Amino acid sequence: MLKLAPFVLLLLYGVAMYWFSSWRTKRELDMQSTPLADARLKALTDRFARAVGVERIKVHIYEIDPVNGLAAPDGRIFITRGFYNKYRRGEVTAEELASVIAHELGHVALGHSRKRMIDFSGTNAVRMALATVFNRFLPGLGVVIANFLVSVLAAKLSRNDEYEADAYASALLVKANIGTGPQKELFRKLDSLTGVGGGMPAWLMSHPKTAERIRAIEENEARWKIAPEG
């Protein structure tokens, strides 16, 4: 039992750090967000609401410039001001932006916030354990090696979540009679919209590469026997 105590403490430390990060994120979002008030987007999210059998889907604008969408740990959906501005300038259609909302709804519906807490706590414990072992043989380098290995593992877990949320979004878009065309078209635009290139090795990325995400959507369409769009 005593031998397990350090690992239990590491897990508890990971949980505590996750909850602190969630609290800090919630506070920042509360201070820097406003409700989304756009008639066209509301009409699309109302279609999502009818498709999943809820009264309304609330979306907020997170007042920061980077192009992104996110699902907060408390289940709220956010689109950044930078992303919304792209839509207002016509660089992104309402249906394309709605596909982002559908993706974030997928994270909420699939319990990814709770899963990330478990993943974060577990990988933190693994990081500390590996660092302790490697430091015995490679003093000074053990932490570096442990951090690298855990980063690869965390990136893999994150990519799996993104694929799952993409699949949920595809199903929701189809059920809402919007289709997957806007979802795939947005992915084709994503690198230019975000200013992020594809130079990083795939196994270090927290999100799958664009071409792989589109391929996964089309594979789902084939399994679901849905005629491809876009």
Describe this structure as you would to a colleague.
- The chain has one domain (5-224).
- The chain is built from eight helices and four strands, in the order αβαβββαααααα.
- The chain has a four-stranded mixed beta sheet.
- Mean pLDDT is 80; it is low at 199-204.
- The chain has helices spanning 5-31, 39-52, 81-88, 94-109, 112-137, 142-175, 181-194, 210-224, and strands spanning 33-35, 59-62, 69-71, 77-80.
- The termini are far apart.
- The relative contact order is 0.11.
- The longest helix has 34 residues, at 142-175.
- With 230 residues, the protein is of the alpha+beta class.
* Helix-residue proportion: 55-70%
* Uncertain ranges: 199-204
Report strand order across the widest sheet: 1-2-4-3
Q: End-to-end span in angstroms?
A: 58 Å
Binned strand content: 5-15%
Radius of gyration: 20 Å
* Major beta-sheet overview: 4 strands, mixed
Report the average pLDDT across residues: 80
Query: Structural class of the secondary structure composition?
Result: alpha+beta
Total number of distinct structural domains: 1
How are helices and strands ordered from N to C? HEHEEEHHHHHH
- The 3D shape can be described as globular
- Extended strand count: 4
What's the helix count? 8
